[in-house]
Amino acid sequence: MSYRFSLAYLTVMDATPPEAVQIAAACGYDHVGLRLLPAGNELPFPLLTDDKLLRDTKAALRDTGVTVADIEIVRIGAEFDPQRYLPLLERGAELGARHILVAGDDTDLNRCAENFARFCELAGQYRMTADLEPMPWTGVTNVRDALQVIDQAASDNGYILIDALHFDRSDSTLEQIAAIDPRRINYVQFCDAPHIDNPTLEQLIFTARDERMLPGAGDIDLKGLLQAIPRETVLSIEIPRKAESRYLSARQRAREGMDAMKRLIG
User: Fold this and answer.
1) Would you give the DSSP letter of residue 211?
2) For residue 89, which of 66, 73, 105, 111 has the smallest C-alpha distance?
3) Where are the beta strands (DSSP E) in 169-263?
4) With a threshold of 0.85, does the pTM exceed it?
5) Domains identified in the chain and CATH numbers
6) Distance between CA atoms of 106 and 118, rounded to whole angstroms?
7) CA distances from 170 to 21, 74, 162, 184 (A)
8) What mean pLDDT is reported for the chain?
9) Residues 169-218: pLDDT tens digits?
């Protein structure tokens, strides 16, 4: 089975959703990731409420054959209310999305697991999975934390999402990833980055959201990560490069990401 590829939102964050779909098709991606809710304190993205943009995006999906792999982003904090995310779920269902990226901000992992289970139940009504992404600056910091939440929630549609950068900058190990039940991984986000000893919170977030590197250009053991995950896993190419976006178009960046990933695979 050959790998399938998804173009993550952050790689082409300056493109509109229809443009992202068209870029994905032109550069050989099978899927696309779309952001409808912000990762920080920004306003919701237009695709959440703009019906014309939704129609244009659906038309691009239909015309190209690209499908929506995932939508972003749900954040589970201490005061989490899954009903707040109904507009996201309804929009995602209209787009044919399969997975929802979930961040665990609550440091109380027992409560986080309870809320994750509640969200999984709601997402399941829309035939979507909830994919929990450990990030070193959140309450769910590493693979071990994420698996604790997922196992405790015991939801059929609860999955773990591995991000190469967050894996590298946490205390997670390749052995932990290789031991995950293959049925609990839908997609893995790939990028590269330089090694940093004891990165600050600001460094973690800046690199994650603004300045990653093409696969093979940094110090992350991406070949080891590839070997640790199931072959059928979708490879999401997530490489924000804000500085280079000043002179490289979204299409150029998407193509460079795909080319670098294919070189890594060999």
Assistant:
1) B
2) 73
3) 185-190, 234-237
4) yes
5) 4-265 (3.20.20.150)
6) 14
7) 32, 21, 11, 20
8) 95
9) 999 999 999 999 999 999 999 999 998 888 888 888 888 888 899 999 99
